[in-house]
């Protein structure tokens, strides 16, 4: 079980990323676009730099949706490897069967 404070911190980061996502995408497009002038590009870089550090999606950690475990996360289920194994054995994940060949 992850610390409640770490889970809460990650949730706050998700909210900040969502709030700034559209503007960040616009600024990055201006920076990448070859037709942008140097002044536009410089202004976009400056505005991007002034945004909060937590506005970057890279700062969000994928965590287990049940207990917040930060490592061994499987995107398909939104759970950690430990939780996937437990729930698969209990029959809570439809279509997931134990492998045998």
Automatic annotation (TrEMBL):
<dbReference type="Pfam" id="PF00253">
    <property type="entry name" value="Ribosomal_S14"/>
</dbReference>
<feature type="region of interest" description="Disordered">
    <location>
        <begin position="47"/>
        <end position="73"/>
    </location>
</feature>
<dbReference type="GO" id="GO:0019843">
    <property type="term" value="F:rRNA binding"/>
</dbReference>
<dbReference type="InterPro" id="IPR001209">
    <property type="entry name" value="Ribosomal_uS14"/>
</dbReference>
<dbReference type="GO" id="GO:0006412">
    <property type="term" value="P:translation"/>
</dbReference>
<feature type="compositionally biased region" description="Basic and acidic residues">
    <location>
        <begin position="61"/>
        <end position="70"/>
    </location>
</feature>
<dbReference type="GO" id="GO:0003735">
    <property type="term" value="F:structural constituent of ribosome"/>
</dbReference>
<keyword id="KW-0687">Ribonucleoprotein</keyword>
<keyword id="KW-0699">rRNA-binding</keyword>
<comment type="function">
    <text>Binds 16S rRNA, required for the assembly of 30S particles and may also be responsible for determining the conformation of the 16S rRNA at the A site.</text>
</comment>
<keyword id="KW-0694">RNA-binding</keyword>
<dbReference type="InterPro" id="IPR023036">
    <property type="entry name" value="Ribosomal_uS14_bac/plastid"/>
</dbReference>
<comment type="similarity">
    <text>Belongs to the universal ribosomal protein uS14 family.</text>
</comment>
<dbReference type="GO" id="GO:0005737">
    <property type="term" value="C:cytoplasm"/>
</dbReference>
<protein>
    <recommendedName>
        <fullName>Small ribosomal subunit protein uS14</fullName>
    </recommendedName>
</protein>
<dbReference type="GO" id="GO:0015935">
    <property type="term" value="C:small ribosomal subunit"/>
</dbReference>
<keyword id="KW-0689">Ribosomal protein</keyword>
<comment type="subunit">
    <text>Part of the 30S ribosomal subunit. Contacts proteins S3 and S10.</text>
</comment>
